[in-house]
Here is the input.
Amino acid sequence: MKKNLIFILSILLSQVSHAVPRTILDFNKDWKFYLGDDSTASKAPYNDASWHNLSLPHDWSIELNFSEKAPATTQGGALPGGIGWYRKTFTVPVASKNKNVAIEFEGVYRNSEVWINGHYLGKRPNGYISFRYELSPWLKYGAEKNIIAVKVDNSAQPNSRWYSGSGIYRNVRLITTNKVGFDATETFVHPWYISGNLGETSEGGMLKPGQIIAIVPVSVTLHNQTGVSQKLRLVHTVYDAAGKVAGKPFSGDIELDTFGVINRLDPGLYIDNPRLWSLEHPYLYKVVSALYQNNQLVDEVTTITGIRKIHFDRKKGFFLNDMPLKIKGVCMHHDLGALGSAFNYRAAERQLEILKAMGCNAIRTSHNPPAPEFLDLCDKMGFLVMDEAFDMWQKKKNKFDYYLDFKQWHQLDLEDMVKRDRNHPSVFIWSIGNEIREQFDSSGTALTKELAAIVKRLDPTRPVTSALTETDTAKNFIYQSGEALDVLGWNYNQQKYPDALASYPGKIFIASETTSALETRGVYNMPSDSIQVWPPKGKKEMEDVNGDWSVSAYDNVKSNWGSTHEETWKIIKKYDFLSGMFVWTGFDYLGEPTPFPWPARSSYFGIVDLAGFPKDVYYMYQSEWTTKPVLHLFPHWNWRPGQLVNIWAYYNNADEVELYLNGRSLGTRKKTGDDLHVMWRVPFTPGILKAVSRRNGRMVLTKEIRTAGQPVKIELKADRSIVKAGGKDLSFVTVRILDKDGNLVPDADQLLRFSVSGPGIIVATDNGYQADTTSFTSNQRKAWKGMALAIVKSAGKKGNITLKASIAGLLTSLLTLKALN
Here is the structure.
């Protein structure tokens, strides 16, 4: 025992003095790009001097102009696809000659084909899955140049029901390892805990009340490609967030045969009274798996993990760490608004920050695997994730979609997704499909069993679901797959939720997709309490009713298959057995502009608009999903004299709200029954509208809205005034057009002109309006309802970045950002 502890100590000390032999390099810089097809571009000797220089991730579609005639259609965002080529020249040090060198792509949309020095490596049709290729047999070392070439074919359209983007739109890495080492994609860390509060026992007997012990099993796969048998020692060490060793490391001797592979599970890691991963405190541990030969480090893999327990109860719903938790989730597509599909860490973080402030605690990655960094953010920020694999199986939804590739590729794609994502504590459930058309015929039964079995083989720790629309068990063949689905995912059909326990014996429920209500920020049609269905049943589109392709922002317009936001949330919150919901959608997204045709080019479903500006219903959720005091009063106070205006207020932590106009009380309103807002009808008189919320007669919050005058000035407000100078970080600058007193002018639509000086660039502009067909890359943008957005990126150097915004006839506004290392 003493010798073993001495050995482990020497191993931990050796990590300080020995370089880690596994290197993972950012491979995103210095690529060349050509939009078009040239079959000779795969060859190593090729003149690409005229090609465009860029860094990845890259989405070429977002850089182009919106077009009614785009083959992707408005459902796909009305942006062109096509074929594009990427090439990169690089060198590999001589020291890597006896190692394994691989390239890893996190996502390429779509039909990617890859060559190294003219040698064909392979093809991956799925645009959302991560994959890698070994490069070593075809590499040149030292000063000799290597050429990687990638063809991306997104020309066969439509192939998606939403905006897909085109290109190498996620990160790329070059990974170098020894011939003896770990298969990193096979590492699986799946911790759990036992608690004395629940009367559970450890190996040593009954736990004391309050005592918690975490068990951290680690599954690894080791390979030996040296041709000589190897004697090794494997060590697993857990570190806490402060970098200190947590619990006792595990070590064991291994002998790898010539060209051998070993799969092993090491259950010997225990942590006494660990800090648990939760939504409020998403505590993360680091598990370092190290392989040694003669006390020298051979390979090392680091896995970030969280210790938490999940389970569903048929009658009581979902539990996290043995505590009941209502899942308050949203569905999210993968695009980042004006940035398109090119993944940016800060842009994704901003979306999650906005949703977190609303009270959202879960994300459904509709309807495909996300970027792995998105899951890193969810781990870090405290979100649960429904990780979804497919939008279709063998039956198509679009002429050229994944149904063409499903038969050949579904197993590998699903395996790669689960192996990549199963170490994330945020992932609490797998979804194998969304509204799959095989639910309507017998093929659904066999396919459901097959896909669920693939998931369970690779991860038996999490439940499997599929998002279903057919609620009749006699007609739903996916449902008839028996116990293949652990949780029944329901899309819409909210009127059937209350009877679910009786209708579906033995089943557990989650509302995997709900609502599909429609809003445009800043638009208000009255009366607000008249529910409208757009488009009417039996129609896919409808004519423009407002003259500007907009939808009222009161929560009173819904799709013919959906509901208002309030309607479904009232049901979900009422019944414990309904584990939770995923609202369609958290943010507006490119494509699928229900209920309108062109020129609408992005969705109306979001709680937040495409620019990241909350719509009014955001505050309904905030008042219901958080404990922070909320009082949100709307609409604006600029109307025709005498016009009868419907005034809504969302509030919490109060008993009532009193409304005042120019100091005169218009009465007090209280929510009764299951009401989620209060309302007044008031003839418009210019001045000040004021709301006061009270609890037990004492004021909680006040909110004022003033009648705005003519536009006078531009306000620029950055979400972050300091950005990293590395060339990737972003600052999102909110632009507001104000009157002389600083009030937002609610109908201001002037043309804004942006420019920047210093080490920064304007990468995109937006205003959140679903029918604005100006290219996102334009430095000119009309305001929508008094607001717009400019996205500024650091350009790789330190210094001051100055953004200038101007409107003809108004005062010019300047904003200074700092780019620091």
In short: The radius of gyration is 28 Å. The first strand starts at residue 23 and ends at 26. Residues 1-19 have pLDDT under 50 and may be disordered.
